[in-house]
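Comment on both lines for my students:
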Amino acid sequence: MRKSFVALLAALVVVGVVLAPAASGRGKKSTYEPPYKAGPSGGDEFNYVSADPETGEVTVLRAFPGIPPVVGCEPEPSAGWAMLRAPHQVHKRITKVTVAFEGQLDPYAWVTAGVRGANGEWLGVEKFQGPHTGAGEVVVRLNEQPKRHSKVTVEFGLQLGDACPQAGGASATFPSIIVE
C-alpha cells in the first residue's frame, strides 16, 4: 500500500510539473523575438526594400529623381515598405501589443505596427513617424478583440510616406514584440 501511495504521489508531481507551465503561460504576456516570418513589401523601381526575418532588420531606401515633366507626387504605393510578421495564439483578452525597435528614420518614414485577425481584418494599427534615431516602441491597442483560441498576426515594419522626388529612408531592427 505504501509503494502504491508513493507511486501515485510521484505521478501527481510529474503531472503537475508538466501541466503547470502550460496553464501559467496563458495568464502572462507573450514575447516574440527573431526569427520572425516574412511579411509583405512593395514599392516601385526607385526603392531598395529589405526585410530579414532571421535578424528582425528592415531597411527601406528611396532615391527618386523627379524626372521632368513630372510634377507632384506619385501615389503612396510607389514608395517603399517592408513588413515582418509574428503569429500569436489568442488565449485571453489582448490589452496591447508593444513593438520595440532600434533604428533611424527620416522625417517621412514610419514604423508601422498592426494586428490582423484570423480572417485578415485589421484589429488595431499604430504608426510612429520620424525623424528619430535610437530605441523606441509602438504600442497597438485593439479596436476589436479576437475570439479566444483563434490566431492573430502582429505585422510590423517600415514605410516611406510617399513617392515625391526625394532621397531618404529608414532602417530598424525589431528585437521584440510583446502581446499582453
User: Anything to note?
Assistant: The CA atoms of residues 29 and 180 lie 5 Å apart. The chain has one helix and eleven strands. Residues 30-179 form a domain with the Jelly Rolls fold (CATH 2.60.120).
